[in-house]
Design goal:
Radius of gyration of chain A: 28 Å
Chains: A mainly alpha, B alpha+beta, C mainly alpha
Subcellular location (chain A): Nucleus
Number of helices of chain C: 10
Main location (chain A): nucleus
Largest interface: A-C, 70 and 60 residues
Low-confidence stretches of chain A: 198-234, 530-535
Helix content of chain C: 40-55%
Mean pLDDT of chain A: 76
Strand content of chain A: 5-15%
Largest sheet of chain C: none
Oligomer: heterotrimer
Organism (chain A): Elysia crispata (lettuce slug)
Function (chain A): DNA-dependent RNA polymerase catalyzes the transcription of DNA into RNA using the four ribonucleoside triphosphates as substrates. Specific core component of RNA polymerase III which synthesizes small RNAs, such as 5S rRNA and tRNAs.
Domain RNA polymerase III Rpc82 C -terminal (chain A): 191-334
Structural class of chain A: mainly alpha
Chain lengths: 535, 316, 222
Amino acid sequence: MSRLKFELCEQLLKECYGDIVATVGMSLLHNKATPLAMIIHRTKMEAKQVKQALCSLIQQNIVTFHQNNSGLIEYSGSADAILCRLRFPHYIHCAKTLFGDAAELLVEELLVQGRSTLGDAVNKTVYKLNESLAASGSSIPEISQNLIKDKASILVKARLIRRCEDVCRDKDGKVISMNVTFNPELLFDSPREHDYERTAGSKRSAAEISEVPLKKVKLETGDAASSLGKQNDTGSSYWCVNVHQFHHHFRDQAIISAVAKIIDQKASEVMRTMLRLSETKTVPTDPISAHLSFTEICTAMPKDKIMTNNVMDQYLKCLSENCCGFVTRIGESDFFKAVEALCISEIETIILERFGSKALRMYRVLLAEKQVEQEQVVEKSMLPPKEAKELLYRMFAENFVTLTELSKAPDHAPARTFYFFNVNLLQVSRMLLEKCYKAAANVMVRRQKCISENKRLLDKQERVDAIISSLDVESAAEQKEEIEQMVTLSERKQLKKVGEASKVLETSELLLGHTIFILEAFINSTVRPVTVLKK
Amino acid sequence: MAAPIAIVKQELSEDTDIDIEAKIIELCTLTPKGITDDVIKAAVPQCDIQQRVIAVNRLLSTNHIELMKSGAKLLYKLKDPDAVSQIKGADTEEKVVFQIIKDAQNKGIWTRDIRIKSNLKNIQVLNKILKNLESKKLIKAVKSVNASKKKVYMLYNLEPDQSVTGGPWYSASEFESEFVEILNAQAHKFLQQKALDASIVYPEDPWKRLQTSYASADNVLQHITNLGISKVNLSVKHMESILDTLIYDGKAELSARTSGSSDGESMKIYRAVQPLTDTSGLVKTPCGVCPVISRCTVDGLISPKTCIYMKDWLDF
Amino acid sequence: MAGRGRGRGRGLSINIEALGLGRGEVLPSVAQPPPLYPPLFFRPLPPARNSDLDYMVALRQELRFSLHKSPYYVNAPHKAKDIERYSDKYMLGANDGAQKWEPDWNMFPAELQEKRKRKLKATGAKPNLKAARQTKAPDVSQLLEKLEKVDESRENPDDEGNENEETEEGVKKEKNEDEDDEEEEEYDEEDLEEETDYNLAYFDNGEGYGDDDEDDDEGPTY
């Protein structure tokens, strides 16, 4: 794991969950599985805080625990899970575009809570929706629970949310380790009625209510009547977000927008349909999707975008002949190639902005020709030789291109050696990924600094706003004005600037998250041919 | 021939010698292709072979005629009178050098190669000769486009070859990048226009639309020639290299269409495209273009907290 | 030193090329040493703004807000104040959130639980104890005394956890392991119940249990 990745994780943890959790989390990342005592010792913090932090981390699906051979429970953290936090807004937005507002709120709830029972999540969503309805004063009747429950089932069917893995218990019934699910399908079992009933752990009052059935089970041992996590052999009744599925969506989305750029909008719709169909059929980690037949695609097109068979056929032809190998004639999409093409495109845009269009030209020459000598590059790209050489060397210095030597003579004299330039995509991707991590961490640091510098002003503004909103009830426009005046014009300007800067920084974070995603997708697709369905 | 022949020759009158020479020259002028020994014999039957030989030799040495071989026969050709005067007074070395350069024709020859071929070991002498020839305007030096330090020599009146000057992209051995860029831009515009036209003509037919938005190198060439931007005549090959640069710019893509016509070979066709993804998020932050990012740490001298690039960027 | 061309030089000193400046660009008027932030060759693009991104930015801010407020945001505990101020009771610290959340111990390893509560458990007076427990009353009262002593010597609430662990271990040695486990189990579930005022009302040790903020308001009720 790289240093820069860790730094980014640290920043994310600090921002989301505070310093204490960050320290504990980082200690877990730096070392592999560690038992509790070791963690306390390493972080030099108090046991109580460490435990609290661990609880938070486990709840948020960042840390898992297993029992090792000596009987101690060891905790290990996952950096990728932390990095997902960078993409939370993407997930929520995706849910919204796919399934609407209710889905959005459900996903948001699950993301914030880490894991939760469906009942809890549904209740909160209903509450939020009704609240906002009331606030906006619309006449739409209150949203019922059932509506939200349906939405939840839809989300489960789409595999966007899933059950959490259950825990193993030892002979005394104590929790010792998290289960590795043998059958991933169980995680996507539709929610049952009792899934909605349980509301454990999040609120005290609710906890009290649910404690009664818990106790009952304990005292009347063996009674599996109440809905505890234990009784499900299909998985616990806690649910969490399935980020893998969201990642597939992002990848599909990137492919679709690429297709739109190459051909046109309609073609992208066709692509979208194809991808949706293949979602259900393909093993998620396969580089190539399942075969789809023409009629299948035709029938699956959404109603408003239906087109004649002829046109459809033509689009498919276009896709298969054109799109850099995204689609083949048989009707399958090649994800590996698609991801590779997207990654290459990203890298090219980076080079374009960093070195200029001339450098881009040379880079593409190198990509196309694999091993080239310097003169050939310059010749093919038809650029002024001096400038071309300089750019080439600059790119080499920053590791975008690599040099291989092939000596003609055994003495490896420079004059008698061939120097070939080439591009090693994997290496460049990794290098850029590191840069992205660094950039993301930097942006976050900068934003925090910005906020902390202007904390006084921001607090003031908050107080003023709070006072104004409380005053609203009692009119008195002059009072309002007076208080508004407390914030001077220059302060207002400053605040506006801070707000703008903050927005810019946040936007960059989001965009960086997207770039990180594409680069990671490419690297993962080359490195891991088969993966078990993970969180 | 043995010595007695020479003695015999001396007994002959000089007139005969001169006659033979004049006759030979006359014959050569009549037959620019060259005359064989037999022809001379027929023309001056009274001279015997020795006389002829001497006459021929003298003419050769004075460079009035030159000796050529055609198959197994020897031909005597009249030499260019200018060349005669040119080389007059030149010594053999110069002649040799000149000959070598001439042989190199329009590709020219490098000094080192001249030295090797002429077996002249002394560089100074060679240079002097070259300078002499240059001042006599017999040869000229042309800068090679590959290595600007290299000079190749060729006959004065010859046009240097493509490989030396680099073709239309080079003028005076300077790479004309602007010219290339202009052509590049024009070609791109043309392709874009074609795509636009295609979308107007076939709004509903994606396949046809796609097909018509392709253009071959020929089409582009014609368009450019019509525009008249280029002073030099461009060939299809040149056009293809320009289009290749467009591909390398990521602005066009190459495909092959088998032309249904007679030749049946696949033709290269080009189409304007857009990049697959939007500009990456990395270069939308200063960190993406920062030259000192490798030295950037949170609490160091160069850190995101104090980064002036970020400051500028946020202030827009 | 690469020469005099460094900060001000025209012409191509090696340094300038290494710093990525273009030729002919105006150099910053810095004397020596070379600028820490050389002028950028290419400026970064301004970040794109479209409605989607704006929405996501707003989402981000909301998320951050809710995460901060969430019980998962672990804050440093209240530092011991010299004087307990009246206003502390009304200060809305994020600690409140942290305290309110209790993980579902069915899914979490037991060792992560707060051992400090064993102290309560050891004190024994539970309204819903099984009959069997009553037999242990003598043991328990001994423990009670022991622990009260421990309490009195306690100054810093933060040490509470450690001290409790120590005493608890001592307690463990005295008791039967089986019983311990049993009680532990019961305690695990009953713990939440026992945080109610009923239990704590019995044991009002003036200093309060440090960060049991939620119990503070139990104080005055009896």
